[in-house]
Every structure is written in structure tokens, then in C-alpha cells.
Amino acid sequence: MTLRILRCGLLAIATGLFGTATLASPIDWKTVRGWDISFYPASDGCQAFALFEEDTAFFIGFDNSDDDLLLDVTLLDKKWASIEKGTEYDIAVKFGNESPWSLEMDGLRTDDFPGLNIMIDAQSDEAKLFIREFQGESSMTWSYADTTLGRYTLKGSRAAFDEVMNCQRSYLAARNSQSDPFAKSNKKADPFAD
User: What is the pTM of this model?
Assistant: First the structure.
């Protein structure tokens, strides 16, 4: 299976992970240094996607589906068949030589792809530090208990997440520029306003 076919399949699955019953396909934004950046209408968020060695899919970006901007981090791997949807897993992630993070991640399962997900308030110091370490280090290592889930390169992560932020800002600006011609704030333009 080629990387492009697998990416398309995983993007469709990711849309299902973050969406509702009525799903729209992700909208490609651009590819930056090996990372695919897309906007996911179901989550009102932009995400960076990378497929690492041994077919671990990694997504990092934003979820704004409840008008509450969250940092969304997801790993999917077909080999993790024992992950149970809705179960919380204590996962460690270490960026380069930084101190390891201890994350309580939710198990998820979509079709044949089990995985892990965490949502963090995007405005929090925790999210800002997570992003800074993600962008500033050359690798990340994920672990569960005494088992290393994978060690992955972060080559291009700075440019990729900068582009995720550009994508998200562009979406939010476009959404906020839409105005309601019937709102009271448009009184001068609307002769029928109170």
C-alpha cells in the first residue's frame, strides 16, 4: 500500500474520529517538509499529519468543534489491537532530551485502526509548552508502561505546526468575517432594525 493511499484512508478515518454523523472530507491546505496539513470541517480545526515508520499515524493540531479551541493529539496504529475505545491509558512522551510528559490519553477505535487521543486547552501553558517542545526537538518517544510504542523523527515539525496555526487563523478569520445582515449591530444598513 502506498503512502498516498494509506494517508487518504487515514484522513478519512481521522475525519470519522473527530466528526459527527454528517462528515465532510478534509480539505488539504499544503504539504510542509513531509507533513500534510489539512482542515477538518467536522472538528473546525487544522491538523498536521505524518505517517511514521511501521505505519504509526500521528496527528497534531486543533479541534474547535464546540467553539472551545483545543490542542488535539492523536496516534493510530493497527498493531495496537488491544486498545479499548473509551479506556484511559497512562502514556509517556519525551521530546528529545526534555523531561517526559505523563498524559492520560483516551483509547479510540475506528474500523481497524485503534489509537490514542488527548485534547488539551489550546490557551493553556501546558499546550504552549507541548507545542514548543514538539517544534523544538528532533525526535519524540512514546511509551506505555515499560513498552516503547515508537521513536519518531520531528524533522520539519516547526514549519508544519507553524502552518497548522496559519491554517487555523485563516479559517477563524474567514468564519469571523461572515456577518449577519439582520443583527442589531448593522442598524444603519438595515432600516428594519429596532
Answer: 0.80
